[in-house]
Amino acid sequence: MARSGTDAKVFVLNAESEYFEMMAYLTHHGPVPDNVRVYDFPLGGHGGGGAVPWHSCVPPLSVALEQWVCDGTKPPENRMFTLEKRDSPRVKHLPSVPAELPVTDDLGIARGGVRLPPVEVPVFRYVSSGDSAPKAVPLSKAELAGRYGTPANYRKKVTETVDQLIRERFLPESERARYIADAEKVSW
Do 61 and 9 contact (CB within 8 A), yes or no? Predict the structure, then answer.
């Protein structure tokens, strides 16, 4: 699009799984033009599902795109993964060529992207085994206490994350109650 000279406004939404299926291959090649925004979703699956479903982000981002086109209101800035070239049995591409895949943290969560509450305030570790998607393994009580101190602190961090995502136009207001109710169920 940068070469075509178009001024069309474009949002690119990539689930983490799309990097393993090679559907997001060109997203990170070269600078992102000013008329394009790229939003990557850690632990997300194609179509809005995955270990961390991100489908609820589509409606507010659609509104943000419409506002950008119609009245010039800038959308959220790019939220992209940090990538590295590496081999992975999960990748569906040419086997002799390392793929550019998201760098993960100590819990197996991709660095960068739109960090929904289960990503930003995790209670699971994501363990890869062979060529399948990572499996969620609950953090131990000691790990949870080390990260958050108390269940109340955990719930506070979830609430702060949800509020920030709503302000930034990644989540609709209607998602607040669901995320806060889910956080109330976590205790140790």
Answer: no
